[in-house]
Amino acid sequence: MNEINSAHKSIKAKIVLEDGRIFQGYSFGATGTTFGEVVFNTSMSGYQEILTDPSYKGQIVTMTYPLIGNYGVNKQDVESSKPFVEALIVKECSRIASNWRSNDTLASYLKNNNIIGIEGVDTRAITRHIRLKGALKAVISTEDLDDKSLLEKVTVSSGLLGIDLVKEVTCAKAYAWNNQGKYHVVVLDCGVKLNILRSLALNNCKVTVVPAQTSAEDILKFKPDGLMLSNGPGDPEPVTYVIETVSKLLGKLPIFGICLGQQMIGLALGGKTYKLKFGHHGGNQPVKDLKTGKIDITVQNHGFCVDIDSLNKNDIEITHMNLNDKTLEGIKHKKLSVFSVQFHPEACPGPHDSAYLFTNFVEMIKNHKK
Amino acid sequence: MPKRTDIKKILIIGSGPIIIGQACEFDYSGTQACKALREEGFEVVLINSNPATIMTDPEIANATYIEPITPEVLEKIIAKERPDALLPTLGGQTALNTAMKAAEMGILEKYNVRMIGANTTVIRKAEDRKYFKEAMLKIGLDLPRSALAYNMPEAMEALKQIGLPLIIRPSFTMGGTGGGIAQTEEEFEKICQLGLRNSMINEILVEESIYGWKEYELEVMRDSKDNVVIICSIENFDPMGIHTGDSITVAPAQTLTDQEYQKMRDAALAIIREIGVETGGSNIQFAVNPKDGRMIVVEMNPRVSRSSALASKATGFPIAKFAAKLAVGFTLDEIQNDITKETPASFEPTVDYCVVKIPRFTFEKFPEAQDILGISMKSVGETMAIGRTFKEALQKGLRGLEIGHIGFDNKNDFREIEQEKLLHRLKEPNASRIFYIKYAFQKGMSSEEICKLTDIDPWFIDNLKQIVELEEEIKNQGKDIFHIDAGLLRKAKEYGFGDEQLAKLLNTDEVTVRNQRKKLGIIVTYKLVDTCGAEFEAYTPYYYSTYEQEDETRISNKKKIMILGGGPNRIGQGIEFDYCCCHASFALKELGFETIMVNSNPETVSTDYDTSDKLYFEPLTFEDVMNIVDREKPDGIIVQFGGQTPLNLARKLKNAGAPIIGTSVESIDRAEDRDKFSQLIKELGINQPPNGSATSRDQAIAIAKEIGYPILVRPSYVLGGRAMRIVYNEKDLTKFMIEEAEAIDISSEKPILIDKFLEDAVEVDVDALSDGHTTIIGGIMEHIEEAGVHSGDSACVLPPHTLSDKILDIIRHNTKLLSKKLEVKGLLNIQFAIKNSIVYVLEVNPRASRTAPFVSKATGIPLAKIAAKIMAGKTLDQLGIKDEKKIKHVAVKESVLPFSRFSGVDIILGPEMKSTGEVMGIDKTFGIAFYKSQLAAGSVLPTKGKIFISVKANDKKSIVAVGKKLVNLGFEIIATKGTYNVLNSNNIQATVIDKISDKISDNNVLDLIRQGQIKLIINTPTGHKSQSDMKSIRNAAVMHGISCITTIQGAQAAVNGIEAILEKDFSVTSIQEFIKNSG
User: Fold this and answer.
1) Which of B61, B413, B771, B780 is the most exposed place for a label (fewest CB within 10 A)?
2) So what's the pLDDT on residue B370?
3) Residue range A87-92: average pLDDT?
4) What is the mean pLDDT of residues B807-834?
5) How far apart are CA B706 and CA B877, in angstroms?
6) How many angstroms from the chain centroid is the CA of residue B366?
7) CA gap B278, B285 in Å, rounded
8) How many angstroms separate the CA atoms of B236 and B312, rounded?
9) In this structure, which topology does domain A2-156 adopt according to CATH?
10) What CATH number belongs to A166-369?
11) Does the beta-carbon distance from B352 to A123 stay under 8 Å?
12) DSSP secondary structure, B725-771, as one string
């Protein structure tokens, strides 16, 4: 192995994984030390959406595409109010931003938001390591470059399993996203991406966003026509309050779950979830609609998944499957107006292939009203 | 949906000869398709006139017709083979157009042949500008403002409506032939006229100029269940206005936000659905306004294309192979991703590297043409490079281009470039603009200014700037290679700087840099191209080099042989050499070796990941090859199959300890070094034209005086007769020495070669095999054109049709003598000239020749395969090759020239090779075989009508017989005064006509050509300098697509062909039948 690094980048940085593997690079964002689970994302564009996706709370994202920051950042392409990733690892961050909409460089954006960014890293080596070993806890530092000390720090860091991260990303109080729309949808915010709200609004919905801790009773007080269970970060099992809320609302109104939302529904319906080896994070995942045989190219971002075998097939229909690893991608209740997908029909970043699911949700609401 | 069962036999149309805009990418796609369909149990019938392709190898299709690709010939094949389906989307524009014509002529209906992949409605909707525009508007996509015109008045009306600048695009052409950008009304008229003529349906689109916008391409695939995926996005470094084939292109897109990219993706999905491409791949081009993001649809190709070959190599996703499978009913999810094995093809590849494609131009071959780039494609080849950053990939690509640059370096001193010229070269797109960007930085120009002048995206310009900045840092740090900061050296390698490039900056040599950086532990790493960004394990060993932490090579314990490819296609070194490299790989696999291919040309079959056991997609330079040798430690390296490129590396590789197999480096030197070679010839008692070699102008003049004019002059160690000239006097020799020789720095290692030029001699090419002891002739080819026309441009016939057995025996004898003396192991090519029954040796090439595939196809003997096995240690005897193969048929090779691409260039043939490709005509007699070869090369020999003849004094005697025959065959001859007089005095009826320069008259040749009255032109140019009005006649012939024969031998052969075809129409025969009949 080669110990010589490219010279002349001012601040050195180190990444130490919990199994002792060390990567070196240079800081291009904020400085300091941070912890998280390292995951890799295979999207070649859309880093700004990824940074601001609340589902990345607790995670350090490695972009597999090496050239990041080329088009800078802009005011529009955000999925929440601020970046949520713990840190960003790239091969090379562009020093200039080239796009008519950009108003800042990526480096400056990360600095301003106090997010550590590391470049000059063999990101493919990290990716292969995670593929073989599974998602790992890691520490990134620009101030402590001592391997031993860093390894000790990462060993005692908390990780994701059994931790409720939803409470850290949900909104503080309920708010109206828009004021118009034929159908009133309440969105239970477990870390909702803004494009879910935009997509609902586009489908003629009046959207109210409520904190994840909102009780079933309080939700029903809004007299919603439907409930959207949003995406969100981390392990679904410790988020017991949402699971409980969902259990109470099953059959009461049409429910559509996305990503963590699907896991909430799965758990509420008596299923189990498990942690995937290294998760699905990227915009090229093939998902088959088992009824039509059609394939959607989907964007995904999850480390946990509902166990197909744990579901009661008398009540639940498997609607979508991942063609890469045959994991569960979508379910539908056979009697109740409930359906969910593990992937992200709201895209941002990623393909728009499954945007029709929002229309399906509205159709479900319409039929339920009849 | 599983495989279709309603079809069993499928006809595939290839793309014919290599021409600008249609190169070996279609051999790659066609070969993949044939293999894929046979794998699924279909019977495949193939038509392709190009013998240098892998797809026309007898084992690739069930029945292979090396016949002219015309609807008429297609009908003959269909009538004979009765296929159920026709797959027209894999052979480029040629296949698409031929299929369309065949459908329009009712041939497909008559024989109940279905088009699969794309039908006529789809093709018309995508290719016809009017229908395409309607379709795009229907699905709400934005287009440039435009109007269609079918004649000049309509074009002028469009000009009035839209306003200048305007782009003119002819419908149904390939590579943008005849299109252009008009800034002035005058230019507009000229381009429209040309475009209307070039369009198959006399239709042009006149549209709003979106010149300077950002240009993108998406490669899209669709299956019969309407699943659509994007395989790759490509962003052009050069903005709109430069043909994408001539642009530096980058994959994936670099400067689109995800919002913009998804909008483009949505559009691509909507387009492929609306156009209705049922299954397979399409290429869709977009333009984006950098100021406001407005996106416009430029065009769509409903077939696999050059870009899909690039996309396949860039991602590892085999588009053509899967397109073939989709065409016969499979869906994307039913096809497995070969690389990951566990995941299906129904996904979108993601890459974790940057790919840069750089076009290769050959403007130096056409001095009269300017190296200005526009929307009509001019490049003849391309190289692709992969790196972890754009900077690394770009520099690797530039050094792989083999145009004298060793990276993003300085060929010229920036201080010597005048400001005015610099600004001009930045503003007007040209073949070396990227280097002018460097000069601009060196002269202190800002990125903003450069962006403004070039319209190139700031991101690309900033990356170039980073390279220049690092170079400055290395130059200014003041330390030599032994003291330079290791971190800085490593960074330079990460930025793609080559060892040779660093050596220049640090005033040392390449090997010192190499050794020192290795000592410092700065060692190359190899990464995999795996379609998935390492998300899944990859089983296919397709590697590229970079400077990273982790290396992924898996080194086996097997015996392995490395084959060096030819790099980017250029005139003189093209598909023929790739064919040989592939065959070497196939042959050595048969012997149980692990084969390792090294090449940088994305168009080729050799860079298909399943051609060899391992593929290294790398530049063919000493550094890049040695890095692989260090890692793989091969048991042998083959340098004699990839053309001059690997041969030029042989000495250096050997000195570095690389195990080169086959003919020794010393023997290669003996054949290439003029003095050593002359010595050898003398020893053997063989004739050679008087010659000498010179390292200075004075020496050259002295030698010329001694051996007498005319002489043939050329630099050593070149391929394709680069800068080769016939010189008739001292004045011209001086000119040559100043303009050509001194420009390429002659030295004692690389002197100028001077030979006595043998006028009116017959030239012969011989390809032979030798194992060091035994030599067996592969084929003897007699050139149609006289010696002095480059062998690559000359037509030739196998077996020879005018040479006596005695002469042939002398040729055989000399071949064996030379081969033995040079201890050739593998292939050998010798050129002979016969004058007054004396056989002279012109040159000996101890390597694979351009004719090796032609001979292999004509005789059924796979020369390159046998040669590879010999290099691996087998003898001819062990391989069962005992005698020269005698064939019962005749094969004619004809070359295809790119003159229509370079306006103002005269079409005469000479010692410098100018052709881009070749075709083969094969039949029982010479006449028919020659006729077929002409038809395949795109020049139809007429069977009646007017023929214009004007020949030089020397040919006047020979023209009598030609004229007589033509009159007897019922042709009407029109001749210029001198030629007329000769014909007339021999009682041959002819009409005299004015030359253009004679006087203004309405009865000159140009008018008759324009009116389409003349069906054939026979015009042999006078000596070394052509008359200007004859040049304009020849140019007019090119513009109007009239066959123009420029040698008397060509004319004689043409008459032979016409005579034969008038007697009886030809039939079609498959290669497999020829081989069977030859026993």
Assistant:
1) B413
2) 86
3) 98
4) 97
5) 47
6) 16
7) 19
8) 17
9) Glucose Oxidase; domain 1 (3.50.30)
10) 3.40.50.880
11) yes
12) EEE-SHHHHHHHIIIIIGGG---SSS-EEEEE--TTPEEEEEEEEEE
pLDDT at B1026: 46
Cβ-Cβ contacts under 8 Å between A and B: the total is 189
Which helix or strand (DSSP H or E) is residue B160 part of?
A: helix B152-162
Q: Which residues of B touch A349 (CB under 8 A)?
A: 258, 262
Using the Cβ of B549 and the Cβ atoms of chain A, whether some distance falls under 8 Å is answered with: yes
Q: Which residues pair with A188 in a beta bridge?
A: A210, A229
Token code pair at residue B1056: 């032979």
Residue B890: what residue type?
V
SS3 label, residue A67: strand
Distance CA A11, CA A32 (A): 11
Token pair, residue A139, equals 């520490």
- What's the full length of chain A, in residues? 370
Nearest to B488 among A7, A96, A100 (CB): A7
Question: How many other CB atoms are found less than 10 A from the CB of residue A350?
Answer: 31
List, in order, residues 6 or more apart from B1076 with CB less than 8 Å away: none
Chain-centroid distance of CA B892 in Å reads: 20
Q: Which two tokens stand for residue B1044?
A: 């123009």
Which two structure tokens, joined as six digits, stand for B599? Answer: 């090449």
Structure tokens at B9: 């036999």
- For residue B411, the model assigns a pLDDT of 84
User: Are B548 and A124 within 8 A, CB to CB?
Assistant: yes
Q: pLDDT > 70: what percent of chain B?
A: 96
Given a contact cutoff of 8 angstroms between Cβ atoms, the answer to whether B228 and B220 are in contact is: yes
B560-564 sheet: strands from edge to edge:
B525-528, B542-546, B614-617, B594-599, B560-564, B636-638
Q: Are B227 and B333 in contact (CB under 8 A)?
A: yes
pTM: 0.94
| Interatomic CA distance for residues B431 and B771, integer angstroms | 44
**Site of tokens 């291919």:** B597
Residue B611's closest CA among B19, B49, B57? B57
The catalytic site residues of A sit at: 259, 344, 346
Give the span between the Cα atoms of A184 and A100, in whole angstroms. 36
pLDDT score recorded for residue B1029: 67
Question: What average pLDDT score do residues B666-692 get?
Answer: 91
Residue B954 pLDDT: 84
As for the ipTM of the complex, it is: 0.96
Token match 């490219």: residue? A6
Kindly state the helix (H) or strand (E) to which residue B545 belongs, with its residue range: strand B542-546
Contacts of B527 in chain A (CB under 8 A): 124
B781, B782, B785, B791: CA torsion to nearest 10: 30
Q: What is the pLDDT of residue B748?
A: 62
Taking only the tens place, the pLDDT of each residue in B629-652 is: 999 999 999 999 999 999 999 999
Cα separation of B469 and B167, whole Å?
38
| Gap between the Cα atoms of A131 and A40, Å rounded | 9
> Span B138-144, mean pLDDT?
94
Average model confidence (pLDDT) across chain B: 93
Measured between its terminal Cα atoms, the distance across chain B in Å is 44
Which structure tokens are listed for B793? 């441009």
In Å, the largest CA–CA distance within chain A is: 70
CA B731, distance to chain mean position in Å, is: 35
The CA–CA distances, whole Å, from B824 to A240, B686, B766 equal 80, 18, 14
Residue B59 has pLDDT above 90, yes or no: yes
**Chain B residue nearest residue A24, CA to CA:** B549
Helices vs. strands in chain B: H and E counts, helices first? 36, 38
Cβ within 8 Å of residue B384, ≥6 positions away: B310, B313, B314, B355, B356, B357, B358, B397, B600, B601, B602, B617
Mean pLDDT of B981-989: 94
Q: Quickly list H helices, B428-509.
A: 433-442, 447-454, 458-476, 486-494, 499-505
Instruction: Report yes or no: B518 at the A interface, CB cutoff 8 Å.
Output: no
